[in-house]
Inverse folding.
């Protein structure tokens, strides 16, 4: 990938925000994705741990690519607009089974060097705009471990609210489920909340 395309070509597979270039992943992105997914720091709150084996990351990437093929949207690779070759992390929305039902799942994971700069919130706001303004979804959910306070703050900053818990990991405390519905999104956008679209 050379860099952001012209604004006229942007769609679900490629979006520009105030600071970021969000694009669909490719098979060639496997080394960059494995580099930070194999870092234990990126999975600090994940009971399953990091993806040490390249084959595990390859299987995960294949699932993402298949989702893009079938649905026309999915998780993006997140890069700075001025440094498009450097992958900061992954974020976006995908269909996923949550607490026994099919749902639209909001997800993000960033390399430690990108933490604390608001990139996850910026990515999440663009993902919510896609979900509600282009895909016309009724709601978006996000699952987070209770101890993951940074992710919980990001979700709350993006306007999601805690609605329940899900015992998705046997022997562990239940994960928390955050939600935003279409009506709440439109209200917060009108009020100038974070999720007011800032795509350029």
């Amino acid at each position: 990938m050379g860099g952001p395309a012209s604004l006229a070509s942007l769609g679900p597979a490629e979006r520009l925000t105030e600071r970021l270039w969000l694009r669909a992943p490719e098979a060639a992105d496997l080394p960059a994705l494995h580099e930070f997914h194999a870092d234990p720091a990126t999975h600090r709150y994940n009971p399953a741990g990091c993806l040490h084996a390249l084959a595990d990351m390859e299987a995960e990437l294949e699932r993402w690519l298949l989702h893009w093929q079938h649905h026309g949207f999915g998780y993006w690779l997140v890069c700075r607009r001025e440094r498009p070759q450097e992958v900061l992390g992954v974020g976006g929305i995908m269909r996923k089974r949550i607490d026994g039902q099919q749902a639209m799942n909001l997800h993000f994971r960033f390399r430690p060097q990108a933490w604390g700069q608001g990139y996850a919130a910026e990515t999440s706001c663009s993902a919510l705009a896609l979900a509600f303004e282009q895909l016309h979804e009724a709601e978006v959910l996000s699952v987070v471990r209770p101890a993951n306070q940074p992710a919980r703050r990001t979700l709350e900053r993006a306007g999601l609210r805690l609605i329940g818990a899900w015992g998705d990991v046997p022997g562990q405390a239940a994960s928390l489920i955050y939600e935003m519905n279409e009506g709440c999104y439109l209200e917060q956008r009108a009020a100038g909340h974070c999720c007011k679209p800032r795509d350029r």
Notes: The longest strand covers residues 83-98.
